[in-house]
Amino acid sequence: MSPWNLPRHPEDLERRFNGNEDRVHSSHQFLPSETHTEFPMSSDAEEIFDSEEGAILEEQERVSNLGEQALWILVHSLLAIGSWIAMMLVISIMKVESVPVVITLGLSFLIPLIVGNIVTRFKQNEMASYTWLIGLIWFLIICLWILDMPTGPNQCYHCDASQKLYLTFLSPTEDSGLIDGEGRLVGTWPTAAFIGYGIGSMFALKKKR
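-> structure tokens emitted (209 positions)
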């Protein structure tokens, strides 16, 4: 700025400064805004987002349901085996000299059946009827264990696979001698308890419906 254009009085200098400041403010009004503009989401994007969110919620619900079902199966399995153990303790306390194998098998099936029916009447739960699967899995595990055992004198000597299983678990008069003759106690009667509990629960569910 040349010296002849400078204002001679302080008031003129202040007016010129204020005028320049007004022009700067007015020029800033025409500058583009620095804020981000939000664009509306398209319908296709909304559908994809909703479907993904729904799939996540469905997966979480399925996992929680599986955990709850596993817990109920465990509870009912414990009730089934607990009722059978209680029945065996009662027989032991009564000090019965000899109980036929068939009667013990029948009681092992009947007592849990009654317990499962009563429990399911008060608490309707479809998982109670699946205890027979637990019994089947248990019985198969014990069968594999028996089949893997070697035979010998007084232990089903020269028995084939079917004879080992029949004499160990099912024969009312003979025994294979394997696992000290406790094949029914370990395999047959607990399996009957699981199956009986499941059938009793099925009857209660059908009557409730």
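The mean pLDDT is 79.
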